[in-house]
Amino acid sequence: MEGEHCQTRIIKIDPQNVDESLLVPPAEVLREGGVVAFPTETVYGLGASIFQPRAVRRVFAVKGRPADNPLIVHIAEKEWLDELTPSCPPAAWRAVEVFWPGPLTIVVPRSAQVPPLVTAGLDKVGIRMPSHPVALALIRLAGVPVAAPSANTSGRPSPTVAAHVAEDLAGKIDWIVDGGPCQVGLESTVVDFTTPRPLILRPGAITAEMLTEVTGVEVGMAPGLSSPAEPPPSPGMKYVHYAPQGEMFLFEGPEERVHLELAKRIEEALAGGKRVGLLLTAEMAARLQVPEEVVVMTLSSRKNPEEAGTRLYGCLREFDRLGVEIILAEGYPRIGRGIALMNRMEKAARHHIRLESDEE
Ligand code: TXA
Ligand code: MG
Fold first, then answer.
1. Tens digits of per-residue pLDDT, 25-54?
2. Which pLDDT band holds residue 5 (cuts at 50, 70, 90)?
3. Domain match, 178 and 81 both
4. Which of 109, 157, 162, 179 has CA 20 to 30 A from 41's CA?
5. Is the distance from the beta carbon of residue 31 to the nearest atom of ligand 1 less than 6 Å?
C-alpha cells in the first residue's frame, strides 16, 4: 500500500448537526486498517487504528514523518484511558476532568495495549480526547483508539481546513472527513505528567497557568521551550515544523521599532527583486505604508491572539500558493494564547529578530 496511489474519498459533515450514518463508512475503514483524515478543534488529524500496524506505518509514510516522532492517541470517552495507561498520575486526572474533551494531550506511562510503533518506542504515550463533534463521533463509531498526527506533509503548516489536507495528501489516504474550519487552529497543549513536576512539551490553548490552577501542582515549561540551545525533551521538537516555503523573518519588540524595521526591510527586499509578503496585526496593517506589489495578510488585532491562531497556518499556506519568497512577520505579546502562537511563529520563521525598546 505504501507509496501507492489510492482513491481518496471526501465527505462533508455538518459539525452543528452530525449525521452519524454518513460517518459509518470512514469509521469502518479506520477500524479495518485504512487511514482517514478528520477534523478536530485544533487542526485536522490523520488517523489510524492503534491496533493496525500497517495503517500506523502508512501514516508515517504518507506524511514523510520520521519514525522516532511519536503519535498522539485519540479517544472518544475518558474511560478509554484506563486501557491505555497502567497508572494515570492524579494531576493528569484532574486536568482531563476539566479540559477533556478539548485541546490537551497528556503524556502518561504506556500500557501493553499501545504498540511501541505508535509511541516511537517510548514507554510513555500521548493521549487526547478531542472536543470536535465529528472527531468524537468518528472515533466512537470506529470503536478503537486512533493514532493521529496532524494531517499535513511533515514540515508543512498543519491543516486547519479540509482543503489543506487534500493539498498535501489527496491520492495517498483513504478518506477525508470535512467538518469545516478548526476552531483553535493551533495544535493541542502537550503535557508530560511522568516527570516529578509536569512539563509542557508544546504550548497550546490550555496554558501553564490554567493547568497549575486546576491540578494544584506547579506546571512548568520544558527547557527546550525557553532556551532553544538545550536538547529537545519532546521528540517532535527537533524537527522543522509549520514552515512556509518562503524565507520568514519574525520581528518582536515595541510596536514603534517593529514598524520602522518592517518599513526598511520591505524596501530592501523589493530592491532585491523578491516577492514580499507581510504577516501583520490589524493595528500594524492600518499604519504601515505598503507598496501595491506586496502581499499583506492580517492575522487579527494585537489583542486577539486567539483569532490569530485560527488564521496563522492558512496564511502561511496562502503565501506559498502566491509564491512569496520573503515573509516579514510581526510578533505578538507572549501572554495567554500568544505563547502558543509565538511558539508556532518561531518555528515557521528562519530568522527571529528581537528589537529592544528605545528608552531605558
Ligand atoms: O492538536 C493536536 O495535538 C493534533 C490533532 C490532530 O489532535 N495532533 C498533532 O499531532 O499535533 P502531531 O503528531 O503533529 O504532534 C504530536 C506532538 C509531537 O510533538 C510529539 O513529539 C508529541 O506530541 N508527543 C506525542 N507522543 C509523545 C510521547 N509519548 N512523549 C513525548 N511527546 C509526545
Ligand atoms: Mg504535526
1. 999 999 999 999 999 999 999 999 999 999
2. confident
3. yes
4. 109
5. no
Helix crossing, 337-348 with 305-321: angle to 10°? 20
Identify the residue whose C-alpha is closest to ligand 1 atom 19: 236
Q: Is the beta carbon of 72 within 6 A of some atom in ligand 1?
A: yes
Ligand 1 center to 70 CA (angstroms): 7
Ligand found nearest the CA of 71: 1
65 in contact with ligand 1, CB cutoff 6 A:
no
**How much is the pLDDT for 358?**
63
Residues 204 and 302 in one domain: no
Same domain membership, residue 205 and residue 68: yes
Ligand 1 pocket mutation, candidates 75, 168, 190, criterion most atoms within 8 A of CB: 190
| Residue 247: closest CA among 355, 352, 354 | 352
Could you tell me the CATH number of the domain that includes residue 271? Answer: 3.40.50.11030
* Bond from prior residue into 101 cis (ω within 30 degrees of 0): yes
Q: Is the CB of 215 under 6 A from ligand 1?
A: no
Q: What is the CATH number of the domain that holds 78?
A: 3.90.870.10
Tell whether the model's pLDDT for residue 113 goes beyond 50: yes
What residue numbers bound the domain in which 41 lies? 9-221
Ion ligand 2: residues, Cβ under 5 Å:
150
- Cα separation, 209 vs 226, in Å, equals 16
Could you say which DSSP state residue 150 is in? Answer: B
Q: Is 201 in the pocket of ligand 1 (CB under 6 A)?
A: yes
153 and 254, same structural domain? no
Cell numbers representing residue 153 in the block: 506533509
Helix (H) or strand (E) holding 198: none
Residues 62, 156: Cα–Cα separation, whole Å: 13
pLDDT tens figures, 287-341: 999 999 999 999 999 999 999 999 999 999 999 999 999 999 999 999 999 999 9
